[in-house]
Amino acid sequence: MTDDQRAERRSRLLASAAVALRSLDDVLTPLATRFTDRGHDLYLVGGSVRDAVLGRLGNDLDFTTDARPEAIFEILKGCADAVWDTGIDFGTVSAQIGDQMVEITTFRADMYDQVSRNPTVTFGDTLDGDLIRRDFRVNAMAVRLHSDGQQEFCDPLDGLSDLLAGVIDTPAAPEDSFNDDPLRMLRGVRFVSQLGFVLAPRVFDAIVAMVDQIDRITVERIRVELDKMILGEHLIDGVDLLVETGLAEHVLPEIPGMKLTIDEHHQHKDVYQHSLTVLRQAVDLETGDPDLVLRWAALLHDIGKPATRRHEDGGGVSFHHHEVVGAKMVRKRMRALKYPKAVVEDVAQLVFLHLRFHGYGEGRWTDSAVRRYVTDAGPLLDRLHKLVRADCTTRNKRRARRLQETYDDLEHRIAVLREAEDLDRVRPDLDGNAIMELLGIGPGPLVGKAWRHLKELRLDAGPMSRDDAEAELKAWWAAQSPD
């Protein structure tokens, strides 16, 4: 790209950003006026400016100002629908203004203790001093907002050049930046995943050299960055970078661990590459917003293979029961990262079930087996469909087509059964009250045992009439009686 082309693109992006920000005049101008009237400057800053330039401005707006937190709070009280001061000790006041979530932070000039990532909060007096302490130059651009509606682009660190080049680089030496806050190493990977940019060589080298410092960060903060990474538009690049820098060894060691294992079909360099392919194909099957649970399940579905690898006679390799081991590993790792229980169980269950379909063969499952497949998947069935289809990575076109057609047949059988019976909510034909009344017993373990017996019958045979269900229950009860 020539200098003239670069200058033209720069002008075009700034013009586009200005248009995007003009659409927020009803929020930005009144806010700027309130600050100006009280003798303060107000700047849109950070990710908000970056995203405006990239044409992806959202509903979360970040600002910085010379006003102190108490003054910010008072200014916002007069114009916001709601105001929160939960971050006021760190200089941040949040508010809801119309559809926009707003965060306004006093200029910062923090000092870090080089042990934790918690800074000694120090308020600054200049925009330049605030911007140079930020994580990356693409996040160190600002737009000064004036009460007359005018907007002034401020880029003292030339973050726009990094943005034009698609590069993630730090304002100062990356070693200093990462010593201050090691989470920035993981944030760099996350921005690669979200933006499709690359790390500057010096940033990559600094992460590799300082990777142990990530251990200073709490697992809660790490989890947030990992989720943002896996929800990114360029998540394969992000995962690869996580592994290449060595960060994965500290935060998700099971992922690089898959590089040690050749997959049983010998169609990929290793199970790690196979898992990236499955992840990519799962993303392609998504409808609507990115699916956090599906993406984690796709990436982690084979993490049990290294622990179950066996060399067979004739030179083959097997991974028997790797889905069982993998589900246990998922639970252990995701609990260590303090994921919500529901997310842990959903991802683990998908990993546990992802091989079940391969017992279907050429449609040889009974209706009972189909019912159990649907029941075991429960609300995860749609995700399981996507995961199983994504797990077909064979390069043999005929085999790939046959696998997809076989799964089409399974989905068709599920649809037919769903029309004939309440397949999404398989329950016994008698409830607990009916069981107690018929058997003449009170609440207790026997009621649950009888209920589970009837549910097994329901799965095996489908819906029964009440008379048949009662007859089956009586026969079961007679077999339980000691006399």
UniProtKB/TrEMBL annotation:
<dbReference type="GO" id="GO:0004810">
    <property type="term" value="F:CCA tRNA nucleotidyltransferase activity"/>
</dbReference>
<keyword id="KW-0548">Nucleotidyltransferase</keyword>
<dbReference type="Pfam" id="PF12627">
    <property type="entry name" value="PolyA_pol_RNAbd"/>
</dbReference>
<dbReference type="InterPro" id="IPR002646">
    <property type="entry name" value="PolA_pol_head_dom"/>
</dbReference>
<dbReference type="Pfam" id="PF01966">
    <property type="entry name" value="HD"/>
</dbReference>
<keyword id="KW-0808">Transferase</keyword>
<keyword id="KW-0479">Metal-binding</keyword>
<dbReference type="InterPro" id="IPR006675">
    <property type="entry name" value="HDIG_dom"/>
</dbReference>
<protein>
    <submittedName>
        <fullName>CCA tRNA nucleotidyltransferase</fullName>
        <ecNumber>2.7.7.72</ecNumber>
    </submittedName>
</protein>
<dbReference type="InterPro" id="IPR014065">
    <property type="entry name" value="tRNA_adenylyltransferase"/>
</dbReference>
<dbReference type="InterPro" id="IPR003607">
    <property type="entry name" value="HD/PDEase_dom"/>
</dbReference>
<feature type="domain" description="HD/PDEase">
    <location>
        <begin position="267"/>
        <end position="482"/>
    </location>
</feature>
<dbReference type="InterPro" id="IPR032828">
    <property type="entry name" value="PolyA_RNA-bd"/>
</dbReference>
<dbReference type="Pfam" id="PF01743">
    <property type="entry name" value="PolyA_pol"/>
</dbReference>
<keyword id="KW-0819">tRNA processing</keyword>
<dbReference type="InterPro" id="IPR050264">
    <property type="entry name" value="Bact_CCA-adding_enz_type3_sf"/>
</dbReference>
<keyword id="KW-0547">Nucleotide-binding</keyword>
<dbReference type="InterPro" id="IPR006674">
    <property type="entry name" value="HD_domain"/>
</dbReference>
<dbReference type="InterPro" id="IPR043519">
    <property type="entry name" value="NT_sf"/>
</dbReference>
<keyword id="KW-0460">Magnesium</keyword>
